[in-house]
Fold:
Amino acid sequence: MDEQYDVIVLGTGLTECILSGIFSVEGKKVLHIDRQDHYGGESASLSLSQIYEKFRPGEPVRQSLGRDRDWNVDLIPKFLMANGELTNILMHTNVTRYMEFKQISGSYVYRDRRIAKVPSNEMEAIRSPLMGLFEKRRMKRFFEFISNYEEGNPSTYQGLNLDRNSMLEVYTKFGLEAGTKDFIGHAMALYLDDDYLTKPARETVERILLYAKSMARFGKSPYLYPLYGLGELPQGFARLSAIYGGTYMLDKPVDEVVYENGVAVGVRSGDETARAKIIIGDPTYFPTKVRKTGKVIRVICVLTRPIPNTDNADSLQIVIPQNQIGRKHDIYIAMVSASHKVASEGHYLAIVSTIIETDNPLNEITPAMHLLGPVVEKFVGITDLLEPVEDGTKDHVYISKSYDATSHFETTTDDVKDIYERIEGKPLVLKKRPVDDEDNFTA
Amino acid sequence: MAVARDSTSSTRFAQFKLVLLGESAVGKSSLVLRFVKDQFDDYRESTIGAAFLTQTIALDESTTIKFEIWDTAGQERYKSLAPMYYRNANCAVVVYDITQAASLDKAKSWVKELQRQANENIIIALAGNKLDLDGKRQVETAAAEAYASESGLLFFETSAKSGENVTELFTAIAKRLPLETASSRQRTAPKGVDLSRPNRRAPAASNNGCTC
Structure:
């Protein structure tokens, strides 16, 4: 370990592993350390025994749940948008070759105390109980506007300016009802609160387009999920990094970051010190250099039956828009099952999550828990959302953000790009790895 | 793993994932390089830039086996091999160096790890490499062979340098692979979405099962 590296990365969460992979491919000498004995950091997937150890140390694993090795329980509930940036990065780096993906079977939204499927095509839209006939026509006109909108062609603008008009003004122009706004803003644009309404419409329109294009890519839902759990993602990028010469050390204590004149120059573990000009890490390695931006509750629930009223879907997302239950933030349910190789046969894993608003977070998620049906086992996690205080240009310590409460990885890949640009002073440009690269052993 | 049948010539084609395990510097990559390219390099550096190599074996006139061979990419060095590595592996070659007694102990612990983590029906071969250095031998053939047979492993002593027993090792594995059950299971197994579809080079290399 007592060597000079270009980059030292602390923690093997997804953000860190993507950056490690990118820098190794670019030819940098990378040392990647995790103080835990497994990959994934805060974004790991754990076996049952690891989950019990984490949430209820000392308690035996419930026998009825079957074999430990059949379980890969995500700590963070997220899905990949089929047309999103993580999918793009996976394909550019060929990391897709180490993994297999499955679709998430359905996307649901809570409205008027029941759940309904978010339509995945025109037929489903016509049959959908989510809105009446006249509202469907108004919504159709709204979607025609969005899909026909062409930058630089004012005849498609319908008198709207996406950079000046707020999203609320756009909704008003098409005469959409409150429930429809909830549906579009929360189940399609996937906003967690209503702050977007008063902001310029462009970002919302882009999010709706991402949703629609992701939906169109494979059908059923806009989401993809890796077999064996989300923890495969950091492992895949770690493998990419290793293939390009990155050195991996798990279960390695990190005693301190070494500074000279206020600038980080290395990392000490016991009596060994690795040196590098760039140190990257997740917030848990830098408690004094991060601030809290919020708190998230995530409740991992084990079920033996599919969630009621979902046509026995083997996987799904349910969005409970804040307005529907008198909150400021949406509640999400993300469910996957044995068919994704994350649970033993006959079991389903649902994670209920939201941003905490009161002193009694368990009470806040009751409306979601009611939708699940019988819960066999439950693990409650409450986590601070952390972000770096400084951008790292002064002390050369570049810290990632915590995984937030959104349902997908778009903010994670934003963070990857942001950290890359802070380090390199230029935006990340992904080059396609030649397909044959891996088929050549190079001496 | 995928099995396909060409209806016109009644030939059978099956693809299997093979993983390499063993301590650093026992010659894992060299064995594969000999098998795939029939090459050897005395001063080979640790593996860089290679994730997997593929090589086909014609088992008989009507059966072709394609190995997708995964290398550890050096992640075994500090006990940091990702569980992803073993996932869906159909076969494994666990390598030790006959001139280093400790490397057999390490190989035994990899076998245990495979039995704990990998598919239950994984086929494991134990390979005692560097047979060309017989004069410096520390591991007796009989001892390794006894361990292999009591653990249900295929066993070969090999030399990546001379090529001795390398093809024999991989052919023995190919012969043990469950071709018939593989094909029937493949037809019923649900298939995930193929994100990299545009990147596939040939239909035979894809995992889409039957190509007829």
